[in-house]
Amino acid sequence: MRSSPALPASPLPAGSRPPAAARRPRLSSRRLWDALSHAYIWAVLVVFILPFLALVGFSFTTRPGEAGVVTNYGYVLDTFGDNLLWSLKISGLTLLINTLVSLPAAYAIVRHSFPGKRLLFSVLTLPLYVPGAVIGISLVLTYNFTYHLTTSMWGLVLAMALGTFPLMLTPVVVALKDLPVIFEEASACLGATRWQTYRRIVLPLIGPGVSAGLLLCFIIVFNEYLVTLFVHPPGLTTAPLRVFNQIRTAGLAPTTAALAVTMQLISLAAVLLFFRLFGARHLKGTYLL
Amino acid sequence: MTGQTRSIAPLRPAPLAVLGRGDAARRLRTLALLLPAILLALLFLYYPLVFIVQMSFTEGSSFLSPGGPIATLANYALIGGRYLPNLLVTLQLALLATIVDLIFGFPFAYIFVRKVRYRTPVRALMVFPMFGALYIAFGMRFILLPGGPATPVLQALGIASTDALFSLPSVVFAMSIFTFPFMVLNIGTALGNVDPTLEEAAACLGARPWQTFRRIVLPLTRAGTVAGALTVFGWSIGTFAEPLLLGSANEQRALAWTVYQRGVVQTDYGLSTAMGVVLLGVAFVVTYLSLRYSRGALVE
Lengths: 289, 300
Prior knowledge:
The complex is a heterodimer of chains A (289) and B (300). By secondary structure, chain A is mostly helical. Chain A folds into two domains: 19-59; 83-283, MetI-like (MetI-like fold), CATH 1.10.3720.10. Chain A is 74% helix and 0% strand. The longest helix of chain A has 35 residues, at 25-59. In chain B, helix 4 packs across helix 16 and helix 11 (196-204) runs antiparallel to helix 12. The longest helix of chain B is centred in the N-terminal third of the chain and has 33 residues, at 23-55.
């Protein structure tokens, strides 16, 4: 794990603290305060993951007459396998569309000058602030009566893309703004075409920003159930929607918990992989500190 | 980082203007780059929103009937009358979740920004709520189930577990877990911009910790705190799974779920779109205020 480079300046150098604390009472109360602070952070974090831990525990329970834990997770792969595959497929297609839509738009927003830029950026990021149920009802009605997309997988993919492309746009815009323009100018001076400059210079340098966008979009789309509930075509049930339907129709079952745990573990793996590859700082200014 | 870019800007000899064949080609290229995003937003957000606004002024499912739409304001009258409790309970839940987040989020953000050095594990655990309210509500429901893990704790506190499961506090609790990261993010960003030496200076000048907090930290982070509260509120009014899985009949009336019931299940398009429009209106007002308060300086 890499530590973040932008740590706030500590009031005291770390090394000088223990001896000083031993001597002066003022500092020992500070130490108590510190301990309480850290305890608070961890207490809140435990509450955070309590629902997840409960689901893990639940997924490990068995009903009378069933063989055990392996069955629950086996059941997930067996019965819910289709749903998992649909979720992965929808997420993949959505990420593709988001990339194709957001990269050019972010480049134009940062590097070109045109009137009404601020307004355009607001207009493009607005989908983030529209409640899911409103996106859902408006899309299901237009799909029904105007676009005739209700039976197509693409209706769902486009709905997901609409809801999440701002999540991709924002980190790419941030990354581009942090990238001095001289690299592109140098490349242009050396005779590269625009496309070459973009592919060889800009894209690798904003790579972490793009990946941050992809990560955010993936964990949202992969776990999205609300808009999906409205616009999913008949016969296509993604895994989170399956969880929702199972709870609504079959009550709480360990197998459903196992599916929910599987989904969260896949999402967590994506996050940890990102932290490992790029470091958490590239998510700055997006959703996580 | 931005400062760096800015300091370079004056040295730049307007390269594209020298090379360019004129503004027209450049404009065209800008438009071409922006077109996919604009199209996606127009076709799949703005047009459908206009569509439901139109539909909300028509009766039932008459908007698409062969006889032509029947114009009416009855849907909005219903929301102001029979469905007013639905709107009020939605606002109440959102407000309570915001308050809980504010109370627990401010100390969390402060400690995280000023004291915590092990940030990666904290960040990794903080992403759990982002995976969705559904899993949180599911997990909470299992915890609170009679005979579930929380039963001994609740018994010790003298609460019947049936009261705990389908109740307002459990809904608010689940909602505030879901939105907690947004609050911490907003306050944390604001705190990160406050120089810690200001607090040290206040302490050196004899201010007590509470005075430092009230006179220095709180005023300097007010914009972030307000923006965080508004963001959380905006996210909370669309709450769907939490009231449904954890709430009593009262909380289950939350608007988002009613929109689904009326619109998709009972095909009363007029009423459900009117509710959607009301929800949208609240979300827009809140977003507008929050963007005004937050820095909003991403694009200049």
